[in-house]
């Protein structure tokens, strides 16, 4: 068992957080990694990607925060035997205000995750586009953070904001949090804008970019319409192939990093002259 907890977060909506969290967990489950996805975004889009709505949810993350159910009572099955989910019913504005107050208790989610962590290879949290509430609670409970970046004009600002926030969290609440990497999403192969953003990201964060980029692909919107993760909706879609590659890259990175720590190597020991190129596979953190 790997027992790795990963948050997928960015201070911006519509950048591919949910799509990434959902397809990452599906991909991990297809690779027979025992995986739990936790939907901590009150919009509940992640839960609907697995076909969960109010009728089918028998306990959710709110019950956990209200102490009306324990963590084992809010875990639901999915169609994949290796993947389970803690869902979040879509709630209205007033309930969200009440819920946000509950999230001021930062230990609830962390303790719940600690309790089930031994049962999973990977636990992945799909965060809302905010830098308080469940995002903070998730980052406190996580070993790693994946930041999805939509290839668009304001993405660099969002990444910088997120990186500053990570530094704060590391200083105060979770010194062990590591930026697993930055993932380009909705990448448009033949546009200058996408290429410029990619180039700038590799200049600013040469060691933190995932090699895989997720292309923009209309099948993703279609799969959302049918409440199916793209990987299960159409395995041949370009975004599916990219997410499958991303899962391989992530597993490889964590297994290699485990092997390195077992054999006494530190992260970054394999940095070489090529570390500024987009093929860099170093693990060093800023
Ligand atoms: N690779 C992609 N190609 C095309 N559309 C995408 C892709 N990834 C996500 N989308 C669409 O973009 C929108 C926002 O994605 P989502 O994952 O919900 O972002 P977030 O969770 O950051 O708000 C959704 O409508 C989704 O279907
Ligand atoms: Mg989302």
Give a structural overview.
This protein is of the alpha/beta class. It has one domain (4-271): Rossmann fold, CATH 3.40.50.300. The chain has 11 helices and 8 strands. It has helices at 17-30, 45-49, 61-66, 93-102, 107-116, 134-141, 155-172, 192-204, 218-225, 230-233, 238-262, and strands spanning 4-8, 35-39, 76-77, 83-86, 122-126, 144-150, 178-187, 209-215. Helix 1 packs across helix 11 (238-262) and helix 5 (107-116) packs across helix 6. The longest helix is centred in the last third of the chain and has 25 residues, at 238-262. Adenosine-5'-diphosphate binds next to helix 1, strand 7 and helix 9.
Structural class: alpha/beta
Give, in order, the helices and strands: EHEHHEEHHEHEHEHEHHH
Reported by name, the CATH topology is Rossmann fold
Tell me, what is the CATH class? Alpha Beta
**How confident is the prediction overall: mean pLDDT?**
89
Largest sheet: spatial strand order: 3-4-2-5-1-6-7-8
Strand content: 15-25%
Question: Which sheet architecture does the biggest sheet show?
Answer: 8 strands, mixed
The CATH homologous superfamily corresponds to P-loop containing nucleotide triphosphate hydrolases
Bound molecule types: adenosine-5'-diphosphate, magnesium ion
**Ends apart, CA distance between termini:** 28 Å
Please give the CATH architecture: 3-Layer(aba) Sandwich
Instruction: Estimate the helix proportion, in percent.
Output: 40-55%
Unreliable residue runs: 266-286
Report the principal-axis shape: globular
Number of domains: 1
What's the structural blueprint in terms of helices and strands?
Blueprint: E1 4-8, H1 17-30, E2 35-39, H2 45-49, H3 61-66, E3 76-77, E4 83-86, H4 93-102, H5 107-116, E5 122-126, H6 134-141, E6 144-150, H7 155-172, E7 178-187, H8 192-204, E8 209-215, H9 218-225, H10 230-233, H11 238-262
Parallel strand pairs: 1-5, 1-6, 2-4, 2-5, 6-7, 7-8
Antiparallel strand pairs: 3-4
Helix pairs in contact: 1-11, 5-6
The chain binds adenosine-5'-diphosphate and magnesium ion.
Adenosine-5'-diphosphate binds at residues 13-19, 45, 185-186, 214, 216-217, 220-221, 224, 239.
